[in-house]
Amino acid sequence: MLSQRVVRALGRRCKSSAVSLECPVQAPVSEAADQPYTVPEEWSHARPYQQVPGPTPLPLLGNTWRFLPLVGDFSIPGMAGVCERLLAQFGPVVRLSGLLGRPDMLFLFDADLVEHVFRTEDALPHRPSMPSLDYYKHVLRKDFFGSAPGVIAVHGEDWQAFRSRVQQPMLQPRTARLYVAPIQEAAQDLVRRCRSLKARDANRELPADFLNELHKWSLESIGRVALDERLGCLDDDAPADTQALIDGVSTFFHYVGILELKAPFWRFCSTPAWRRYVAALDTITSITWRHVQRALRRLQELEASGEAEPPLLLRVLRAADERTACLLALDMFLVGIDTTSTAVASILYQLSQHPGQQERLHREVASELPPADQPVSAHHLDRLVYLKACIKETLRLYPVVIGNGRCLTRNTVIAGYQIPKGTQVVFQHYVMGRSERYFPDAGRFQPERWLQSRTHHPFASLPFGYGRRMCLGRRFADLEIQMVIAKMVQAFRIEWQREPLRYAVHPMFTPDGPLRLRLVDRS
Ligand code: HEM
Description:
Elements: H1 4-11, H2 40-45, H3 79-90, E1 93-96, E2 105-108, H4 111-119, H5 131-140, H6 142-145, H7 156-171, H8 173-177, H9 180-199, H10 210-227, H11 240-261, H12 272-305, H13 312-319, H14 322-336, H15 338-353, H16 355-368, H17 378-382, H18 385-397, E3 404-407, E4 412-414, E5 417-419, E6 424-427, H19 429-433, H20 474-491, E7 492-495, E8 502-505, E9 509-512, E10 518-521
Parallel strand pairs: 2-6
Antiparallel strand pairs: 1-2, 3-6, 4-5, 7-10, 8-9
Helix pairs in contact: 7-13, 9-10, 9-20, 10-14, 10-15, 11-12, 12-14, 13-14, 15-18, 15-20, 16-18, 16-20
Protoporphyrin IX containing FE binds at residues 127, 151-152, 163, 222, 331-332, 335-336, 339-340, 343, 400-401, 404, 463-467, 469-473, 476-477.
GO molecular function: heme binding; iron ion binding; monooxygenase activity; oxidoreductase activity, acting on paired donors, with incorporation or reduction of molecular oxygen
Cofactor: heme
Organism: Locusta migratoria
C-alpha cells in the first residue's frame, strides 16, 4: 500500500495539464543578470547574436520541424551524428533558434569556449534541463515537493538551499569509501546473476535484455547508498517494486526527450506521452517515499543502539528532515540508475571489442585485487590505475550524457558574439572528445592516453560536468563502476561474437541493440 501522505499529495492533480508558454529559464537570474558579465566595451564591440551561424528556421515551424518523422533531418536517437554535422557545416559555435516553446540553443564545440562559460558562471548556475520535470515538481505535485524540491530541474535559491544541505556528505571522498563493502556485495550479486544467465544459453551469451540486469545492479547499489537497504534486485524472486522503479525511470527518460525536444503539445493539453511521463514519476515518487519511511524507522533503531556512522541517507535525515531525505533519494534514483548502468554497459561492450586492453586490465585486476571471495578495500581500488583509464577512455568516446549545458543567467560575450541571457548553451562533449584537436588519434580506444601526464584540454571531456552543479553522485558512480568492472573482469573474459553495435541517444548514449556479451569463466 502506498503511504497515505504520498497518495494524498499525488492525488491532488492539477485541474488542467495546460502550462503557460513562459520560458522556464527566465526566473532564476542573478542580481547582475541584466548586465553583461564582461566589461561593457566587450559587449558593445561584439557581433550581434543574429549573426551566429546555424540552421535557418522556417516561418511558423522554426527549427522544430527538423524533429518531425519523415521530413525532418534531426532525430533524438541520432543526435550525436546531428551534432557532428552541425560542427562540419557551421563551425565551432552554432545557434539553433526557432524551437517552439523553448529558448534557443547555442552549441559549443570548442573546449576553450566551454572553459570560458564554466569559469564565468554565476553563483547559481542554471542547467537547462527538463521544463517538464520542473512543471511536475513545481506545479503539478507542488503539494508534495514544496519549495525546495531537490536539485534536478530546480534552480536559483531553491537549488542552492537544497544542494548546500546534501553536498558535503555526497561529495566527500571519505563518504564513498564507507560504502565499499555494500557496493562490493552488489557487484558480486551481478557476477552471480551473470553466471546463472549465461549458463542458460548454449553459447554462454547474456540475454538480449541484459541492460535491464545492469539497471537492477545499479538500483541495488544506489539502494545501499541512499537507503542502506539490500533491495534484492538481482535475486530470482526480486520484489516487484524494484522492477516498477526501474521501469518508471526508463519511462521517464524515454519521454523526457520527446517532451523536451519535439513540439511541446504537453504544454497545452494532456497528451498520452505526458500522461505516461506523469504516471512514471508518480510511481518513482511513491516507491521512494515508502523506502524512505522504512529507512527512517531504521534510523530510530540505530540511534537507540548508538551506532557511530549511520549511512548517507540516514545522516541526511539526521541533519535535515524526512522530506529532504526523500527528495534526495528521489533525485538519486531519477538520475543515478540509468546513467551508471549505461556507463557500465558501454565499458563492458568496449572491453569486449578490445581484447588486448581487456587482457591488460585483467592482469592488473589479478595482481592487485584479493581473490574473488575476499573483501576488496578502497586501497585495492586506488591501485587499479588502468581500470580508471579504461573508464575515462570509454566516457571520452561514448559519454553517457552527450551534451551537458547551462542556461545563461546574464548577457554574455561568447566567441565574439553577444549571447543574450536565457540562451541554452550546450557543451558538445561527445564531439570534442572525438576531435583530433584535443586527443591525438582520437577515434582509437586507447586507455593508455590517460596514464601519461596530462596533455589533453581539461574541458574537452567532462563526463560528470563541472563547477557548482557538477554531478552530485560522482563519488558513488566512480566507486560503483570501478567495483563492478573489476569484479566482472576478474570473473570472466568478455567476448563479442556478433555484428558490432552502433550507439544511440535513448537519451543516455547507449550501445544500441541487444547486449549479448559472451562470458567465459576465468577460473
Ligand atoms: C556514470 C554515471 C553518471 C554520469 C555520467 C553522470 C553525469 C552527470 C552530469 C553530466 C551531470 C550534470 C553536471 C553539470 O551540470 O555540470 C550530473 C548531475 C547530477 N548527477 Fe550525475 N552522473 C552519473 C551518476 C550519478 C549518480 C550515481 C547519482 C546519484 C547517486 C547522480 C546524481 C546527480 C545529481 C543529483 C545531479 C544534479 C546536480 C545538481 O544539479 O546540483 N549522478 N550527472
